[in-house]
Fold Mechanosensitive ion channel family protein.
Amino acid sequence: MNLWEQFLDDIWNSVSDTDLWMTVLKVVLRILMFLIISSIAKRILYRVIEHLMDPRSSKRLKLRARRVQTVGKLLKNTVSYIVNFIVILLILGEFNINLAPLLAGAGVIGLAIGFGAQSLVKDVITGFFIILEDHFSVGDVIETGKFKGTVEMIGLRATRLRSWTGEIYVIPNGSITDVTNYSVNNSLAVVDISVAASEQLDQAMDVVRGVLSRIEDVNLVGTPELLGVQAITASDVTLRITAVCRPNTQAVVSRHLYAEIKKAFESARNPRYYSMESAERIGGA
């Protein structure tokens, strides 16, 4: 019974110790101060990031509007991780925990993880620069290596493409070495029309010009142009048409031109058969 009473007395003395409570109060106040200062620091850094990501206020860092949100969120997350890590170290220091062995152990573990995840680190770094330098954006049609398709997602680790037939390609960012972007500049649709050599060339060219002067297509940037005779064989004369159109719409415009020219030849009641051959090219306009 005496041991129990002594145990209770020790507890009471500890609870009623004014110096102990003052020490606890100081620790709690310092921890609250760390949390408040870290919150203010994050708010200030977030404002700085938002200012840097604003294209209207920054002339050095030029990003398309759909990139600003991605880059800004990435930088904010990085700032949050760093500030929170520092706060955790300061709080542990308040409890008299020796941080040197902890930091040394974390460094060794980080080094081991770094050696074991070199490809992951490469993917993340490459993904960051893809986002920052704006090589391509979601919705662009690109070709990298043997893959070609529409960009559906750009992440720090991988980029996802969707081909025109529906396949999904997930490509690690570290393996993206060169990229062809088909969605930046206007495209050039090139259409070759073969007319029978025995037909009147001027008549065929007049029919084609009539189609080009009245054709309407939302993807056309200007009026298509009949360049003239591209090639002559024993049986055919090839006429070449070019049309500047919106990025990556040359196939749609070419098909539209084929259909309208075929209808025009039918309306002209030409007894000969007119064959059309496709040639599509991409070019800057």
User: Anything to note?
Assistant: The first strand starts at residue 141 and ends at 144.
